């Protein structure tokens, strides 16, 4: 038990996730920095396209995320076989969904970009980038399912090492294809797209072989024929509200990018550069939030709900301290950092204004990340879904359009509405977690099951409620 507890401790889970996220941040920063050497228009296209890809990712992240939570819960209750079956099904179903998305993006890149209001002069670049990178979305689907499954077994180091290799390969190919180095063709934005797909393919292969040995019983190729309807129903029960939640976020972000595109290409480029800088602000906090989700799901599966309740607040305060420091450092050196990406004075000025607002945005994000992940870990995913639908669509999108476009406040107005959305969702999540309603209900169910099983009058936590101690 002590060895297992150490494996699922917040620190042991969080630091490899942070390294992995940090490397992903470096990957994105290197991408943006190198693409900026092509043109600011190329940067705008990459930022716009990535929002589209992230929005579509929710179609398979639903399965991967729901499966990840269940894997941690099943391992917490010492049910490794069910955890193994859930992981196999998640990879298989995610791959099928990814193939469908890849086909659509490969065949209709221009039509999709036009529908989302991308300026006409950016369409040729968008068609190239979306068709190639979007055509490889199946790789992202498989990687998401594989890494989620591996991470929720307590092995957060494996995906981290894969991220290290992926970064090295991606930076090398980016440099080679953009600048025509080492005898490679000078392909510009086309080269960035090819580089992205190549490294994702290599990472998917590495994660797949790692996945095969992640459970007590090694997974073989013939095991991919397995399908358990009840367990798949459990994945969907937890996963579909997560999918709706994430799709709300991604699609509202995509709409926000569309609003910004209406304002102008400089504003779109500024927001893209800000995405890169913001990633540095919250990635350490997000690693804590992801780690606490795994830890709470594991504790919840083991019936240790009192510990699960307290660890969420510890993670939230740790994360708040981290993101506040990160946001302040970015604010201090923001102008110099933005100058690395572009020489356009208007874009830099817009970015610096947003960095001040970022000091308000990041704490709200952290509260959301910690408490939403805590609620998701115990299966309370419908609550986070409904609150997200309400706040994101009414405040982050509807109010942002009215303030930013109709009232003419522009990018600053849109950003203020994004901040308000984060704090509204954070407040309602805090209210829900402090109420302990879902945890108490689960504890009573466990106690009832214990009574039926042995007539002793106590579940896994004994006669006295752990939450009433």
Automatic annotation (TrEMBL):
GO terms for molecular function: antiporter activity; xenobiotic transmembrane transporter activity. GO terms for cellular component: plasma membrane. Residues 450-469 are annotated as: Disordered. It comes from the Bacteria. The chain crosses the membrane at residues 12-33, 53-73, 85-108, 128-148, 160-182, 188-212, 238-263, 283-303, 315-333, 345-362, 383-403, 409-431. It is a multi-pass membrane protein. Keywords: Cell membrane, Membrane, Transmembrane, Transmembrane helix, Transport. The keyword Membrane applies. The keyword Ribonucleoprotein does not apply. It is found in: Cell membrane. This is Putative MATE family efflux protein. It comes from Paenibacillus prosopidis.
């Amino acid at each position: 038990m002590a060895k297992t507890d150490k494996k699922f401790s917040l620190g042991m889970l969080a630091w490899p996730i942070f390294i992995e996220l940090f490397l992903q941040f470096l990957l994105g920063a290197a991408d943006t920095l190198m693409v900026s050497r092509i043109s600011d228009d190329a940067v705008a296209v990459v930022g716009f396209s990535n929002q589209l890809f992230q929005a579509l990712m929710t179609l398979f992240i639903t399965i991967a995320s729901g499966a990840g939570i269940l894997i941690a819960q099943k391992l917490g209750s010492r049910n490794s076989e069910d955890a193994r079956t859930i992981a196999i099904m998640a990879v298989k179903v995610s791959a099928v969904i990814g193939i469908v998305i890849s086909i659509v993006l490969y065949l209709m890149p221009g039509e999709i970009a036009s529908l989302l209001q991308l300026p006409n002069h950016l369409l040729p670049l968008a068609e190239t980038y979306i068709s190639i990178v979007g055509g490889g979305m199946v790789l992202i689907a498989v990687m998401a399912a594989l890494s989620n499954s591996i991470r929720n077994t307590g092995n957060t180091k494996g995906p981290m090492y894969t991220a290290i290799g992926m970064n090295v390969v991606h930076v090398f190919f980016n440099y080679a294809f953009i600048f025509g180095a080492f005898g490679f063709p000078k392909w510009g934005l086309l080269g960035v797209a090819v580089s992205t797909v190549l490294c994702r393919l290599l990472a998917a292969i590495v994660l797949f072989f790692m996945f095969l040995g992640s459970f007590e019983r090694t997974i073989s190729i013939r095991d991919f024929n397995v399908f358990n309807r009840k367990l798949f129903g459990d994945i969907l029960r937890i996963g579909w509200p997560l999918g709706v939640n994430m799709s709300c976020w991604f699609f509202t972000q995509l709409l926000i990018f569309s609003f910004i595109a209406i304002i102008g290409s400089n504003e779109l480029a500024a927001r893209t550069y800000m995405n890169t800088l913001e990633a540095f602000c919250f990635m350490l906090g997000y690693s804590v939030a992801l780690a606490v989700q795994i830890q709470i799901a594991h504790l919840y599966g083991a019936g240790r709900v009192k510990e699960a309740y307290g660890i969420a607040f510890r993670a939230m305060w740790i994360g708040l301290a981290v993101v506040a420091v990160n946001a302040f450092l970015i604010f201090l050196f923001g102008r110099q950092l933005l100058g690395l990406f572009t020489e356009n004075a208007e874009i830099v000025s817009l970015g610096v204004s947003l960095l001040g607002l970022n000091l308000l945005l990041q704490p709200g994000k952290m509260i959301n990340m910690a408490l939403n992940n805590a609620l998701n870990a115990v299966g309370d995913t419908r609550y986070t879904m409904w609150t997200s639908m309400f706040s994101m669509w009414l405040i982050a999108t509807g109010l942002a359009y009215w303030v930013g476009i109709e009232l003419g406040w522009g990018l600053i107005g849109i950003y203020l509405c994004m901040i308000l959305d984060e704090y509204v969702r954070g407040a309602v999540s805090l209210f829900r977690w402090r109420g302990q309603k879902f945890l108490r209900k689960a504890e009573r169910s466990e106690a009832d099951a214990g009574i039926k099983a042995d007539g002793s009058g106590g579940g896994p936590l004994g006669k006295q409620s752990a939450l009433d101690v």
